[in-house]
Amino acid sequence: ARIVLATHNAHKVEEFQAIVAATRPDLTVVSYDGPEPVEDGVTFAANALIKARAAAAHTGLPALADDSGICVDVLGGSPGVFSAYWAGHAKDGTANLRLLLDQLSDIADPHRAAQFVSTIALVDPDGDEHVVEGVWPGRLATAAAGEGGFGYDPIFVPDGQPAGTERSVGEFSPTEKNAVSHRARAFAALGPLLATL
Ligand code: ITT
After folding, report:
1. Which domains are seen in the chain, by residue range?
2. Which of 8, 83, 182, 193 could disulfide-link to 118, CB 3.0 to 4.6 Å?
3. Mutate to test the pocket of ligand 1, among 15, 68, 185 (most ligand atoms within 8 A of CB)
């Protein structure tokens, strides 16, 4: 089956292509270069639906959209839906992560808990709509490390790594990240819904 991926973020496209190839090779993911709707929702789900509806309407294909971000406990879940623009209007990943590190500069390790969240909307051209979520728990590092991935990856240290060997997602290979990321978890949660396409 063919499915359109409603994102203009090249990193997300790359990650979805890899996740789909590894877990659902029967699906063909088509990229979307149509109009970009205004993302004025206040939740990940609302924004994911806005993007998926626009792409489904424009292409006539089932559409997937991911709205995602980093949620820091001690900031009450921020940056959250504002992750892409945390340091201003430009989508400058380095400025965003620098600001977040500054905001946490007085916070000691046990209180640096954070999670990456990916919310995926699946919208059928007939109007069927579904929303699923994937969460990747961890904590914020005190300095950026690694060149891999995008956005906040260099300052996010996922849980579950043996003590003394902990790395940021910026230090993960794409294969490592795409096996366990918030995006991979959300995509896996779509499973049965994709079977019907
Ligand atoms: P589209 O709306 O076109 O999909 P976008 O980059 O604007 O692209 P979002 O509105 O969902 O997407 O913003 C997500 C932001 O959250 C993204 O720009 C990063 O700053 C951050 N983010 C999301 N997933 C991430 C990941 O896997 N690693 C690092 N940062 C991530």
Report:
1. 2-195 (3.90.950.10)
2. 182
3. 68
